[in-house]
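Field: COMPLEX_INPUT
Field: COMPONENT_COUNT = three
Field: RESIDUE_TOTAL = 1914
Field: MODE = joint
Values follow.
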Amino acid sequence: MLFGTSYYPEITPESEWKQDLLNMREACLDTLRILEFAWSAIEPREGEYQFDWLDRFIDLSHSLGFKIIMGTPTATPPPWLTTQYPEIMVVGRDGQPYTPGGRRDADVCHEIYQHYSVQIATVLAERYGKHPAIIGWQIDNELMGPEGVPPESHSPSAKFQFRQYLKRVHGDLGTLNQRWGTRFWSQEYSDWGEISTPQNKRSTMGQVLDHSRFFSERIRHFIQLQYDAIRPRVEKSHWVSTNSTGVFNRGMDHQDWASILDTVGWDSYFSTFFGSNALGHDLFRSAKHQPFWVFETNSLPEPITPAFWGEMLAHGAQGIIIWHWRNHPANAENETQTFCDWGGTPDPRRVRFMQDIAARAEFKSPIPSTFPRAKVAFLYCPDCTRTALTPDPYILKRDEVPYVSRMQKVYQVLARLGVAVDVIQPGTGLEGYEMLVMPSAQLLSEEQGERIREFVGQGGTLLGVAKTMHKDEWGHNYNTPGAPLADVLGFEMIRNRTLPSTSDSLHAKLGDQIIECLPFVETVTAITAEVEASFTDGIAAGCPAALSNAYGKGKVYYATACSEGLVDHLARKAAQRANIDCYETLGERIAIFPAPQGDGTWLFNHSSSPINEHGVKVPAGEYIKLAPKEMNALKINK
Amino acid sequence: MLFGTSYYPEITPESEWKQDLLNMREACLDTLRILEFAWSAIEPREGEYQFDWLDRFIDLSHSLGFKIIMGTPTATPPPWLTTQYPEIMVVGRDGQPYTPGGRRDADVCHEIYQHYSVQIATVLAERYGKHPAIIGWQIDNELMGPEGVPPESHSPSAKFQFRQYLKRVHGDLGTLNQRWGTRFWSQEYSDWGEISTPQNKRSTMGQVLDHSRFFSERIRHFIQLQYDAIRPRVEKSHWVSTNSTGVFNRGMDHQDWASILDTVGWDSYFSTFFGSNALGHDLFRSAKHQPFWVFETNSLPEPITPAFWGEMLAHGAQGIIIWHWRNHPANAENETQTFCDWGGTPDPRRVRFMQDIAARAEFKSPIPSTFPRAKVAFLYCPDCTRTALTPDPYILKRDEVPYVSRMQKVYQVLARLGVAVDVIQPGTGLEGYEMLVMPSAQLLSEEQGERIREFVGQGGTLLGVAKTMHKDEWGHNYNTPGAPLADVLGFEMIRNRTLPSTSDSLHAKLGDQIIECLPFVETVTAITAEVEASFTDGIAAGCPAALSNAYGKGKVYYATACSEGLVDHLARKAAQRANIDCYETLGERIAIFPAPQGDGTWLFNHSSSPINEHGVKVPAGEYIKLAPKEMNALKINK
Amino acid sequence: MLFGTSYYPEITPESEWKQDLLNMREACLDTLRILEFAWSAIEPREGEYQFDWLDRFIDLSHSLGFKIIMGTPTATPPPWLTTQYPEIMVVGRDGQPYTPGGRRDADVCHEIYQHYSVQIATVLAERYGKHPAIIGWQIDNELMGPEGVPPESHSPSAKFQFRQYLKRVHGDLGTLNQRWGTRFWSQEYSDWGEISTPQNKRSTMGQVLDHSRFFSERIRHFIQLQYDAIRPRVEKSHWVSTNSTGVFNRGMDHQDWASILDTVGWDSYFSTFFGSNALGHDLFRSAKHQPFWVFETNSLPEPITPAFWGEMLAHGAQGIIIWHWRNHPANAENETQTFCDWGGTPDPRRVRFMQDIAARAEFKSPIPSTFPRAKVAFLYCPDCTRTALTPDPYILKRDEVPYVSRMQKVYQVLARLGVAVDVIQPGTGLEGYEMLVMPSAQLLSEEQGERIREFVGQGGTLLGVAKTMHKDEWGHNYNTPGAPLADVLGFEMIRNRTLPSTSDSLHAKLGDQIIECLPFVETVTAITAEVEASFTDGIAAGCPAALSNAYGKGKVYYATACSEGLVDHLARKAAQRANIDCYETLGERIAIFPAPQGDGTWLFNHSSSPINEHGVKVPAGEYIKLAPKEMNALKINK
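Field: COMPLEX_OUTPUT
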């Protein structure tokens, strides 16, 4: 595995480069990620390039044995560009253009911005594409639209391209009008030019969904433009990638982008929400079934532990880059986390941590080149996230618990039980999976419904958690929620609008247990399904909370509310049915993870307590203790 | 009484119309409210009309015995119109035009929007004005300016017309300058063209008041334009109306609009705030002293009860329309409440509820054509609401308890005591009323003050609740608050700025009782009045909290703080003096309502408990029990 | 001492002037502050002046013995000006110009606004510069940029002048690029015209700091323009000043403005935060070491006490003006506090209060013309405030306790101990001071660091409180925080990013005491310093919380967290070392203040309890009682 750090030679005095690099080696770092924001440093005026300093830095790094990941600096167009062409800035929902001076505020839809971006990427690839220090290329940085708001641009360019996108997807205006439901408020379009981006607060869901898909596609297109500039100009051994961020909550389709990249990666900062980093790792490993990069992760020592690092390795990382070595003493991010102080002195705790990691046997094992499919697929629907991107205040008010939280809750249960998953998206084939986990898949097309039906019918095990299939891909509610899968699920739903819930929590009775559930529930009537638990309060009191149903050769386990307790119960049954090992839960923040390459099982203690002193039986039958008050990550060979 | 539902044939497959209509009949619904958003469905491109589908729908409905209320679809101009003329959109206070795609975002002040609105109304009236199925016309939908913000437009058209309005009202600039108090911050206008709409945060109160009055008048004008297009083209038996909303909190003058309409109505959704639906009903019944329409009410069964429906009938409704039958599976309002699921299957609970209602004798009685005046008038001042529409953050911060809440609190007391009222506005003559209730009439002109003086002097009974007459019609504070009525009230006020109150609640002592009061109090010195209660804490500790005063042949009862306890005490005394029956309060959410037509008294149990099992004495001397755990509405013949 | 009131004759009927003036005399008020908003009253159309009414008012006032402070009305340009030249309005960060109609919304950077402002000031000075009633001139009103937002304008004029400012300060673009750290995100400027005002959310700290300094300078320039128009045209005895507001939290440099004014003053409204009014007084007295004006203070009687007024006198006020006598019955500020009701009747409580104050011997003593330096200097850094003006949401989120609160906390301790201070700013020479108090001086230039080193080295006593010297004057972090002063302080800091603190409070152990500290702490290692207290919890648990260090001939006392307990402990030691008397703390809200002119000591009981009945030893050895339940201010001669 490669360990590295982001480094900004352009803001560091040249006289200090060598000492910095020597300090990195001391800290067992051998990979550099550079240049992502350095546009003005290499092209201070249009067409005037300054590469001398960069040549010297790369040569120096090479001479000291460093590998380099080269970024294209397109996230930060220089003032000479934004001053000449202010029209390349993102336009906000309020119709106002962003002002230059930050980052990621330029509009990926704009042809002038695209032109200059391709040009700088080309120049870089031409100059450094054969340099022996370089191992890969990172396109732009954290492509996600402007910070802090939903991905968007409402510029004339974006509007023009949105219309082209819509023509391609819907073919004719009649179809679009039907799918978006424009007839209800007289919004039927009689001309493509009448269609705009969703700036109005009451924009229809179809427009919001399409705009998010469009914007994800536009970013993919922007990636493609740079990919096509770089790929033919660089060594075959070099990979070209981009670093993803805002993974689940912005409607971006990272697996779609993966399809045009050589390798994938993301910026994985420590989350206190148990399992959420691992879920991201699984998404990126599953994108290509290959090792992925962690392009950025914390340099802070406090919450960073062997368990956190071991988790990256176990889930398929091939390299981990710390953000970042040292920062500029001023500028926007001057107080963010770094390995060193502003003067370049490394923090000894950080050095010790890296030395400790690098010395561990696990991190020295070879990285597999591909991973087999897991036995279990875990469905993530970007479209479900997209429904929450609506600007409609009435809809936003209703959504008590966001989709991503519901999905993470379910993942947490699996992580504790030791059920390893691939994260798949609608469109991924289900062949080869024994079991499908489908948390809160509110929006599913009929086509995807058919895939699920077929999967179960042919013997698959489905673990479903509410809400399921309330809307289709254009945001249309099915006449009855879940109806296209009613026979598979074995129950019928009552139309159940997401009214403000009357209580903060709801409960279900499962055997003798009273189990807490998140507020939204589906009110269902069992048809062929067996009821395993029922609600004790709320609007669905007395109705089924957990059910199981045989369909074809397969079987469905379903919770009509998102609930750790119910999901835990059903997941165990489902795993047993699908012949998947699962284990006793060792604690709230303890994960068991069978390695995707099949050569062992990992135990991660993310809690602040030791795993109990008398030893705990782990999968392979051994007993193990984890030192008290320490987090740890262990690989247990079968 | 007519029962109906809003229905959108334009978004429903034609093949399902008949079944929908048959289902409605099953649910005892015989009136349809249609077309309010269907502009693009009947005029998909400018001047190209599509009426075939609508002809067929109306004929089908007619053949099945339905009555139809026809809406003009002007709340939702189609894209061909807003694309050609983007200048018809409302301009917000920030100077930015609204983007098309929602509803009610077009500017009633704009002549091009007016032109097309009149044209579509004309075309509809021409075509369907003689159709036997049609009973009435609804102009636009919920005319109230853009959703979520105060009614406003700051477009050039609005500014031009505002200046014309001001010329008419104030005559000359000197008068306007004096009334608005522009001299204080050098804002004296020397030219009409210098005056704008209140976009600045510190706009004077006079400008805010006039702008709200202006906007209410502009909406009336917009109604008038359509009324004049429809009226001469349709059967005499047809009425022309509009459905009001945002009744008390947006500064719109619904009684003023009523003066140009054939009948009135409003959208009355269930409020958990006891009495607030009834207060609205009284406003609209009192507008013309005729039965009114409930153009929209909930289809949700859960909080909807016989008491809620009986209240509409008792207060003077002639028809009740449920919103709505079924909705489009997508579009902005696809998850809102309906009678059916998206596929058109009616919810059996809703059907049963309607069958139950329709079977009750009360709902079968004939509707009177007019109502006599009540004995009691209840004063609602749109101008008092308007003072809260100021954008001034300093003023907004001060207003601890809004005017509308204060007004509702007083109304609640009357509803529990069985004191039926007409809701009147400043300008309504007081002749014929025995008693005037005047809650928190902070803003009153001297002219209105004179009317009140005359009313009391000639023998009337006045029940007043703080604040009274602090400001005149231009927002000027009287030198001393309440001064023009000081002799009538029998006390003098001390100038008492609405400082942030030091405590959340204040108390008064009335006999042996300690009574809670809302924070703002008037600090007064009794002159001729008798003190009935005094404050025990707060800045007015020791000062009178309740007083009574003889003036001329009349009598005044007054609470210097808004307080249910004080108002209850004074209202009983006032009613007794005015020879108006009132009764023991049966509970927090139990209303007694003597029917305005004088043929009985209603009892509404809006609580979730039964009225006690041993029977309760009701007005006519009978004893009655209301079934436990049920709401009910009963008409008791004298 | 002079007592006065703001009065607006332009909005008061001329027939009531005389009675108003007589009423003022009754209330012991003899100074009038007029005309600050009266532009349209004296120039209703461009170039048409109306002075008759003003002549009459001034003559009348003079005949009744009043002194007059004349304001220039430039805070409120009239509609004829803003209609002709809408471009003079402030442009907000969102790029939208302010709309006319309020106040202080015109752009001090705009040359047209400057032109008309100078012209009206000139006309006034020409006409009234020799009038015997006039004693001084107030330029504009509360110059601070638009209300409610950070001082700013993003107009083209502001941008142009900002660039000129930057050229002057930085000389060349390379220097600016280096200081602002623009290279990090490719924001290196290659042309001055590329630089804008900080509209982007992620604007660099250097840009934010420079923009705030620039805006403070622009206001000084605007003051200078009017000063130069007035000064040569008026009597020598007249002073020219302006009334400051938003003193500590808007980044304005009031001591810098003081350098071009004849006398200074501020608007000092009662704050419940103990000591914060006194801190403001000290800033303005220290600006010129002369008496200052309180140009506005509350007219409300409730919280206004002899202690509050005595504090103004004791800290160096030469005159106190109440805001305001009576207000216009309408207009934006019609409900604000006044001496009279809207009709002009004075509130008897206010009259009694003023008569009581005027009768006290203390207020009759002569006002000194200058004040000597105090023994103790208290450092206020406008730049530290400026760092909080950044629009960057990431930085704003981090700053748990604002600089101004930290500074006030330290001042509170000194006020209770009786340590009188001059408030100085970076750049003020330290010669003559025995002790320097330096609370949370996060941003200090190396030059300022050298001054402090020299001060301590030569024998001075330094009382420092975290954070100290983390950033330099361009917002650059020092390689290690506090490094340039490490030898003076006797300890080294660990780089310690302002992470969200894990707890709301932290604790330190000092001897046997457990002392509460505000969340942010500096983690330090003592080198030569002695540790006096250590943290018991938090990320710095076990590290020093209070230290003392000998350096050269001087001594440093330092708290690594802001904490009243730690500062109290260290301040006593520091005062003792510096031979400054300090006393037992008498209570939370009791201040002891040795008069700056050295003729006594004041005791202010701002609490609502009496000082205890058995007598308390005060500085001069006497015992004193303050009446129970009363605030009081006493001057105790030595």
